[in-house]
Each structure stands twice: as structure tokens, then as C-alpha cells.
Amino acid sequence: GILYTTVGKTGFITSLYIIFVPIFGLFLHKRIHWYVWFGIIIALTGMYLLCMNEKAALGIGDMLILLCAATTAVHILLTDHFSENVNSILFSCIQFLVCSILSLFAALLFEKITPDAITAASLPIIYTGVFSCGIAYTLQTLGQKYVSPVTAALILSMEAVFSVIAGWVFLGETLTLKELLGCIFIFTSILSAQLPEMLKTRRQNRRRA
């Protein structure tokens, strides 16, 4: 999808998994509180401010990224379903094995694999393989034992904020007022989605004490 659309639209459309998760969750009879929906609206607004600088028309690349967002939502819901009853590390390893086999099969069909190309991309391959996939997805599986899939989706939407901050710190890119507001909106959405539960837990602890 990224081959056929812009980075900004990719970032925004991918973030739509934060609204796909609660919508798909309704079919699984998962209750979504009103303040979570409020947080989702704020997060989508923040994503738009953070990522969108181009025309809003949808093309083939945008539709592919939208499909990616939908499958990401399904992955979050499936992880929530299985994470409580399985070994998280083993669960992650099985995911990596299946993904590796499917990706290798697709690469053999659609890509030209050469030793020089692999060597040239060795650092990105190691980074994405070890950190982005190995560590990040394992931590996601562990974390979803303790939070709802909707809350997990909202927290994961912080990746857009971290990418902008990383570009500012490491690449010398500047943050516009619009992008800064987008970061604030996303962070606020996460707080609004979790604060009521945190206050409820605190009140219960006080009563027990």
C-alpha cells in the first residue's frame, strides 16, 4: 500500500484500527464504555492533525492500507482472546514462525531475492525483526493480559507520536503546531480512556482499606 500512497495518509489510515477494534468487538459482545468512544474520537482527530497533509481522496494504495488497519484490529482482538490462556512467549514465537513462512513464500513469488540486497538491508532487517517484531509484539501479548483490546489499540496509536518525536530528535525534523496538537490529542485520548477505570480502582482500594 505504501508504494501507491503517501506516508502521511498511510499513518492516518493505519491508525483507523483504533476504531475498527471496538466496532469488531461489538460482534463479540464486548461492552465499550462511553468515555472510551470519546477517547477514540479524540485520537482520530489527533491522528488527522498529525498525519494528514494531503488531499483526502482514496486510491488503491489507500484501500490496501485500510485493509491493513482492519487486519491489525483483528490481530489485537485475537491476541486479547488467546493471551489469557496461553504462554505469551510461545504464542509470540508461533506468530513469528507462521509470519516468516508466509512472508518467505510471498517474497519468492513477488520479489527478487539476492545476497547483495539482503546485505544492503541487513541493519533494517535486524532492527525490524528483533525490536519491531520480536520485542514489540511479545510485549503487546504480555500487556494485553491486563488491558482491554480497545485500550490496547489506543495505547498502540502512540506509535505515530513516537515516530514524529523520533524524527524531531534524531533527524532534525521540525514539529509544526498542527502536529504538536495532534500529539496532545492522542495522549489525551489515552488518558480519557483509562482515567475512569483508574479512579474506580482507587476508590475500591480505599474502601477495602
Radius of gyration: 19 Å
Residue fraction in strands: under 5%
Principal-axis shape equals: globular
Structural class by sheet pairing and helices: mainly alpha
Main sheet properties? none
Please tally the helical runs, counting DSSP H or I stretches of 4 or more residues: 10
The share of residues in helices is over 70%
Strand tally? 0
Ends distance: 54 Å
Structure description:
The chain has 209 residues and is mainly alpha-helical. 79% of the residues lie in helices and 0% in strands. The chain has ten helices and no strands. The chain has helices at residues 7-14, 17-27, 34-51, 60-83, 88-110, 115-120, 122-143, 149-156, 158-170, 177-208. Helix 1 runs parallel beside helix 4, helix 2 (17-27) packs antiparallel against helix 8 and helix 5 runs antiparallel to helix 7. The longest helix is centred in the C-terminal third of the chain and has 32 residues, at 177-208. The protein is globular.
